[in-house]
């Protein structure tokens, strides 16, 4: 491959190169939000990542003639997802590279060959082990600041993928919405009806309830049920649920997490939202030490910023379409106003999920930050 070589990541030194590469690639970029280095390291550790009980993963780095790391990628085979969707797919994830088609081609070829040797007939990505990992390459709005839960990449990334014969499989879009000063009448009216007809109510959970009284498990059972039909989804295991709770719960203000219960006390819907941590993650440079912890703590306790992240909304299938989300917005809008959030950004949503996208209509949504899952058949390995 000319002046570059691809190396499987086998040592702690090579893994450090894999983790630290984005810091160099995005130096000076005001839109990039780094991952916490400890979180990336944990992805490859079977003791810390329960997803590796049913997934294979292999990181690679690209090295130039001077010994510098100039690209990275990870190959993933999620056996649960492949069984669920009856496919033989290898995923690529955490792809980063300099603007040289030779590097991007070599990285993707490495994952293709790794997957082919294991019987895979298709490569797709960027996707992680689970639907709650970062997924979707940015293909529009490169001049918008990213977030701590989504991918940012420069414009040449999708250009390389398309030159290499990768095609769109699905797109996700995000919405930016202005927070209204009062609850729109559409939501208020629907919320009143839903409460009257179905006896639903909004509750706020405590950390003790989430971790010790079984509500955390109920949340992930609801997520599994609500998201089962969505592209590439595979049920989260109890171990993964605990991992996500350990990772995200410290960052959540549970006043911003409305949970909907029916009269029998069964959980039927919830929204997970939080104040934006973007600036704090940028200032931390992906590290807790020496001062990263200070910026994160400041964002959590004192400096809320001007906007919120609407990470996800989930409604049990038998309650979808009756207005459960109106209860969520009726609860959140006054709280957002008290916290001086003037706008909110949704998480990535499949462009084909019309029902989910339509729920934002009353808040003058603006679609932006389109993301794409690319795919390509693996030649000579169809099953």
Structure overview:
- It is a single chain.
- With 383 residues, this protein is of the alpha+beta class.
- 34% of the residues lie in helices and 24% in strands.
- The protein has helices at 12-25, 37-43, 79-85, 101-116, 156-163, 185-198, 207-212, 215-227, 238-248, 278-284, 292-301, 324-338, 354-357; strands at residues 5-8, 55-63, 69-78, 89-97, 122-125, 137-138, 167-178, 201-203, 259-261, 267-275, 307-315, 343-346, 349-350, 366-377.
- Strands 1, 2, 3, 4, 5, 6, 7, 8, 9, 10, 11, 12, 13 and 14 form a 14-stranded mixed beta sheet that branches.
- Helix 6 (185-198) crosses helix 12 and helix 10 packs antiparallel against helix 11 (292-301).
- 39% of the residues are buried.
- Mean pLDDT is 90; it is low at 288-296.
Beta-sheet strand percentage? 15-25%
Which consecutive residue ranges, at least 5 long each, have pLDDT under 50? 288-296
Structural class by helix and strand composition: alpha+beta
The radius of gyration is 21 Å
Major sheet characteristics: 14 strands, mixed
| Range of helix content | 25-40%
Features of the shown structure:
34% helix; 13 helices; 383 residues; alpha+beta; globular; 14-stranded mixed β-sheet; 14 strands
Task: Break the fold down into its secondary structure elements and pairings.
Elements: E1 5-8, H1 12-25, H2 37-43, E2 55-63, E3 69-78, H3 79-85, E4 89-97, H4 101-116, E5 122-125, E6 137-138, H5 156-163, E7 167-178, H6 185-198, E8 201-203, H7 207-212, H8 215-227, H9 238-248, E9 259-261, E10 267-275, H10 278-284, H11 292-301, E11 307-315, H12 324-338, E12 343-346, E13 349-350, H13 354-357, E14 366-377
Parallel strand pairs: 4-5, 11-12
Antiparallel strand pairs: 1-2, 2-3, 3-4, 5-14, 6-14, 7-12, 7-13, 7-14, 8-9, 9-10, 10-11
Helix pairs in contact: 6-12, 10-11
């Amino acid at each position: 491959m000319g002046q570059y070589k691809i190396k499987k990541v086998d040592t702690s030194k090579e893994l450090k190169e894999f983790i630290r590469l984005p810091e160099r690639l995005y130096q000076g970029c005001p839109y990039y939000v780094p991952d916490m280095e400890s979180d990336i390291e944990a992805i490859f550790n079977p003791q810390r990542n329960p997803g590796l009980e049913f997934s294979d993963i292999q990181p690679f780095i690209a090295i130039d003639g001077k010994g510098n790391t100039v690209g990275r990628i990870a190959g993933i085979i999620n056996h649960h997802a492949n069984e669920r969707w009856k496919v033989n797919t290898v995923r690529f994830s955490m792809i980063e590279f300099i603007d040289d088609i030779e590097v991007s081609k070599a990285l993707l070829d490495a994952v293709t060959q790794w997957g082919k040797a294991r019987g895979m007939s298709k490569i797709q990505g960027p996707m992680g082990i689970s639907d709650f990992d970062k997924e979707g390459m940015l293909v529009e709005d490169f001049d918008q600041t990213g977030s701590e839960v989504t991918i940012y990449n420069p414009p040449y990334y999708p250009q390389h993928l398309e030159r290499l014969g990768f095609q769109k499989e699905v797109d996700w879009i995000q919405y930016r919405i202005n927070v209204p000063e009062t609850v729109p009448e559409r939501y208020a009216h629907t919320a009143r009806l839903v409460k009257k007809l179905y006896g639903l109510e909004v509750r706020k959970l405590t950390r003790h309830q989430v971790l010790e009284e079984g509500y955390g498990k109920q949340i992930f059972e609801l997520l599994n049920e609500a998201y089962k039909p969505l592209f590439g989804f595979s049920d989260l295991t109890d171990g993964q649920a605990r991992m996500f709770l350990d990772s995200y719960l410290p960052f959540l203000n549970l006043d911003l997490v409305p949970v909907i219960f029916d009269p029998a006390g069964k959980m039927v819907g919830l929204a997970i939202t939080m104040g934006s941590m973007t600036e704090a993650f940028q200032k931390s440079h992906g590290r807790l030490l020496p001062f990263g912890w200070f910026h994160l703590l400041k964002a959590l306790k004192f400096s809320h910023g001007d906007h919120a992240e609407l990470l996800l909304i989930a409604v049990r299938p038998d309650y979808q379409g009756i207005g459960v989300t109106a209860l969520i917005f009726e609860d959140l809008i006054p709280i957002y106003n008290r916290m001086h959030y003037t706008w909110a950004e949704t998480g990535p949503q499949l462009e084909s999920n019309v029902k989910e996208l339509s729920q934002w209509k009353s808040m003058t949504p603006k679609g932006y930050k389109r993301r794409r899952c690319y795919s390509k058949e693996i030649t000579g390995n169809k099953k």
